[in-house]
Every structure is written in structure tokens, then in C-alpha cells.
Model the fold of this input.
Amino acid sequence: MHVCFSHLADRGEEYWHIHTMLSVYHCPDLHCHSHYSDGTLSPADLARQAHAQGVDLWALTDHDTLAGQAEARASTQALGLAWVSGVEVSAGFLGQTIHVVGLGVDVRHPGLQALLAANRASRGPRAQAMAAGLAAQGIPNAYTGALRHAQDPARLSRTHFARYLVEIGRCRSVAEVFRHYLVPGRPGYAPHQWASLSACVEQIRAAGGVAVLAHPARYKLPALQVQLLFDTFAEHGGQGIEVVTSAHTPTQVQQYAAVARERGWAVSCGSDFHSPDESRYLLGALAPLPGRLQPVWDLLRERIDQSGSPAAGT
Ligand code: AMP
Ligand code: MN
Ligand code: MN
Ligand code: MN
Done:
């Protein structure tokens, strides 16, 4: 199945002129999750699906872990699919959780690895606090139940709790569990301290990567704090923003494209695919990027592994 739209659809001659010198990707997908975090598929399965669905540049971006990167890279090499390393880092900013996608990072960088390890180590105790909140609502054993889905306390996310509550019949869907139990103000939500936004961006940069602000429309911040978020992100080295993502409406795509133009940021796109049963968008099923924007893969040229891909040598 080929699900991609052309990302070049509404670009002008100038873009073509410049980009004949660069590798051109028609259907990048730079955000998704495997079973190393809260996805349900292996990196190898994701790579196969991405390739079958027309993706021509792919990154696996698990939450706070690089554990799936070697498998992702090996799978793409076997398929002849261009690949770049990736991670989605949980970051704290003004008491909120912000997600920063790091692309093209050196997966062996000690500083980034230490930051990710600290985030992962805090997931177990956080999950215990979430389970306590659920127990108080008459839902016992949620820690054990969620852990069966996650396999490892260091991977435990709200998504695993949601799957457990669906499994025991408490709700009909993962989305319903989030609404009733897992968002701020609900009983299974536990406020949490992730690594600071500034440290996350700095370590992505130190590891040679490009920091991309993930799904900006998802954050519930007042307008002034949004500007502060953008300022802080840029001050510490952030260079990109997700514009096309399954979390954005067409209006929000235009809104964040305007932010990218104003701030001089590169733009990224990704499905945020987690599971065939839960995700509304398949890998690669993305609308085109709006025009007059610099795609983030222009900043990643030396970091993209295109051994064997049709783009090799261009
Ligand atoms: P955590 O890292 O444990 O806070 O979990 C965050 C993950 O929960 C996100 O990456 C999404 O996969 C998932 N998530 C967050 N909000 C929702 C929602 N409203 N509906 C479904 N999944 C959600
Ligand atoms: Mn997730
Ligand atoms: Mn996210
Ligand atoms: Mn994600």
C-alpha cells in the first residue's frame, strides 16, 4: 500500500533548484514508537510497514530510550530505506511535560545516555504513584497489570496503564482511559519531574543531533508561557518544530508553519504511530508540509544512513 502524499506538491521552482543538490525525500516519517517504549510493534515490523507504505526517510523515536536504534538501523539497511537515529525525550518546563524529538543523535553519547537513563529510572516510582491513585478509585493492581504490557518498569508509560484498564473492561478504548483517568486532575495522573527542557535540548545538541519540538499544539500553556517555551527551546539550541503530525488539525499545521517561519526553525513531520489498533494514522500517512519552509532533513544530511536506498548518491 502506498499512502504518501508528495511533500513537494506546493513548492516552487526555487525549491527545486536548491534541492536538486540535496537528497529529496517525498515521504519522511520522523516520529513513531516501538515496543521499546509504548508502541506495540518491533522496530523491524515498523521498518517493514514504513517501507511498504512508501516512507522514504524513517526515524524510530521511542520515549526516553535508544534501545531500538540498532535494530531499526539494521532493518532499514536490509530494506534499502533511508534512516536517521531518533528519540523522544520527556522534558519538564514550568511544571508541564514537553516532548522533544532528537534526530541524528549519536546513540553512544554519554551525556544523552545519562539523561535518558535518569528519565527511565523515574518511570517506575511514577507508575507506583499512578497505581496508588487508581487504587483509591477501586482499581487495584494497576502497577502489575500495566507492567505486564510494558515488560520493564523503565518503559512504563501512561499508555500501558490505559491498555490494562481496557483489558479489564474499565473503559472501551485507550483514548477513553486517558480522558477519565490519566490526564492532569484525574485520579491516575501523577505530577512528575522529568529532566529540564534546557538539559534535554542541550544533550541532544551535544550528541550531534537536531532538537525538534514535538506536537506543539498538544501543550496546554497560556499564550505568554508558549512564547517562553519557544524562547527557552531556541536559547538552548532547539532548531526544529513538528508541523505535520497526527496530533495537528489542518489549521494547526498552518499555525505552526507560521511559527517556524517567524523563528527561522526547520520543520519536521511524523505520524507518532504507536499501534495498528490505537493509532488513527499509519506510518507515512501524512499531509504535505506547507511551502517556504526548511525541512529538518536538510540539517541531517551527514547523519542520514541511506546505504542501499534509491536516494543514495544524490
Ligand atoms: P507518558 O510518557 O507515560 O507520560 O505517556 C505519554 C504517552 O501517552 C504519549 O506519548 C502518548 O502515546 C500517550 N497519550 C498521551 N495523551 C493521550 C491521549 N489523550 N490519548 C491517547 N494516548 C495519549
Ligand atoms: Mn507515546
Ligand atoms: Mn509525544
Ligand atoms: Mn510520540
Notes: Residues 33, 38, 63, 159, 274 surround manganese (II) ion (ligand 2) (CB under 6 Å).
